[in-house]
Amino acid sequence: MIKLLYLYLSLTLVPIFNAGMDNQIVNILLILGLGGMVYYIFRYKEKIYIEKKSPLYFYLFFIAFAALSFFWSVYKLRTIIELFQLVFYGLVLYLTINLSKEEKIKTIKIATLFGTLIALLGILEYVFVKPQRIVSTFFNPNPFGTYLVMLFLFTLGYFLKNTDKRFAFSSVVFLIASLLSGSRGALIALFVALPFIFLDSKKSIKEDISRTLFILITSFIITRGLVYITPIVQDNLNINIDFLDNLIRKDSLIGTSFIGRIEFWKSGLRAFTERPILGFGLGTFFSAYYVGYGNNQWYSRFAHNHYIQTLTELGIIGLILFLLFIISVFYSLYVNYKKEHESFFIGSAAAIIAFFSHIFIEFSWNFPAVTMTLFWLIGLNLSSDKSKANITIKPTVSKIISSILLILVLVHTVCTNAYNIGFKFEDRGDDLKALKVYHAINTIYPVNPNGMLFESNIYVKDYNESLDLAKLDKGIELAKKATDLAPFDGKLHTHLAQLYYSKGDYDNARREYELGKEYAAYVISRHIELARFYIAQGETDNAINTLIEATKLEKYQIMALPEPDKHIGVRDAVNTHILLYDTYIKFGKEDLAKKEAEIIIDYYNEYEYLKDYINIEAFK
Q: Which one of 1, 84, 206, 369 counts the least CB within 10 Å of its CB?
């Protein structure tokens, strides 16, 4: 009963809370799950049985290597966060495997029910709020599309085998929502996986195809109807929604979607060549990206291809282990297919195929709600027959492992949230108490670069008020620890450079300013900081070359920023040209200065808010 309740909580809460992305829900559930395991093992001294060459067996090897990557990770905090997610998926897989058939059916009903409600919420969001790509409780439509397509295939397959009309209804809802999500990748994965629904049809092939066509056609008709009535419902008949255009979005198909992904993949592969065997560490693609950055407008937190992302993060060894896990999943499905299997087998198999297809072109693996659903589906088709298990983990070993993991998750969760106490002290002006909080957290859990920065900033603030160099040295020491924990974070390097500069340590300042620019991608403010340093050191040619490099990136930064933040990119661009203008004027290069003035005037005329930012008469 406890296992069942835990899976109920996981299958419902993770999708509801922002798909489990960048929040504490996975950690909370992991604490509950590991805590329950520790209690159960200590009380009943149960052994853990694992079948050799099963998906769980290979997954444990993958997790073990991912955990080892902490020691060479370029962003240890993120490695820990994503390791906890992997452990959570493994826990869901293990518990699902150990359910009885009746219990598995119960999880199917609860997952379908809540999935249907989440999909309906997205549909209502489209009709009554705004006719755009729906996200429901997710914050990105592409992983939401994957989640919906997986549940559509699963419920469709289940309906074809037991003719339960409730699952037919849910499958229609899932397909309508997936169409409104506008995820082209999810629909491609759907068409790849849909034929597998009929593998088990045999004598009922015609009936199954006709039922499937009915569900598909019904879903498309209802979707088209929703698109038609939405302007009427929202009392805005000026809305012009083209259903196919909204789905295909041909303007972005080549220009942003396809080319962007190609650039993400190239950057990942370029970074991979720097560390081909072990990679940069689990969860560090966003940081390793700066190593493979292609001097263009493209930057992404994820590779939009999890196989390339795994190659970048965990190297060849990690990718091989990941592929072995996937092969073991498909092998287990093949074995099940060849023998008598449950009514939920075909739908879950199709959903699993869709997932592994979609992560070729998307980042759905990184959304816990989607990947958790995958591991639950895998577990549905595996048994807990102890007679087949040829690996036994003794209670003593499982006690140690589960206890260590539980302590780690507790420490991480408590320390991560405890920074808020320091923030409150700072807001009240009590920097001394804030410093004590930050220092205590960083002593207990010394892996958070931002935490080191919080503590550093208190010392620097104290230095600015007292001019006590010992305070500045302590601030520098902590800022250096931050860069050691995140060596490819250009922002941290530029911050450290400014501290070295305040101290008069120009050699170290130069190194950090240059690293800040190297790991800046298209964020040209760091080019400006480096150029100002060069100017102060009398290195005019270096300053000019750095600023010219910034001018080649300025449009990329403006393009990449969301609309509310575009003014930041525009001001950085204008500052670059103003600094170039002043430098050219100072050294008598009036022709070049005139060209910079023309660019400044063009920006001034294009962006209204610059009228309060610069005195344009100075450049005429």
A: 1
Q: What is the DSSP letter of 18?
A: G
Residue 425 has pLDDT above 70, yes or no: yes
Delimit the domains of the chain by residue range. Answer: 2-67+88-393, 522-620
Structure tokens at 327: 């092969």
Residue 406 neighbours by CB distance under 10 Å: 19
Rounded CA-CA distance 396/16 in Å is 36
**Element (H or E) spanning 585, and its range?**
helix 566-586
DSSP letters of 243-264? Answer: HHHHHH-HHHIIIIIIHHHHHH
Tell the residue number behind the tokens 């941290």, with chain if given.
492
More confident site: 204 or 376: 376
Q: What letters, b where the CB count within 10 A reaches 16 and e where it falls short, cover 530-542?
A: bbbbbbeeeeeeb
What letter does residue 124 receive in the DSSP assignment?
H
What distance in Å separates the CA atoms of residue 288 and residue 309, rounded to the nearest whole number? Answer: 10
User: Is the separation of the CB atoms in 336 and 381 below 8 Å?
Assistant: yes
393 phi-psi bin (left φ>0, alpha ψ -120 to 50, beta other): beta
**Three-state DSSP state, 519:** coil
CA distance 483 to 75: 10
The letter for the amino acid at 261 is R
Q: Flag whether pLDDT at 74 surpasses 60.
A: yes
Beta strand 48-50 pairing with 391-393 = antiparallel
Model pLDDT, residue 448: 96
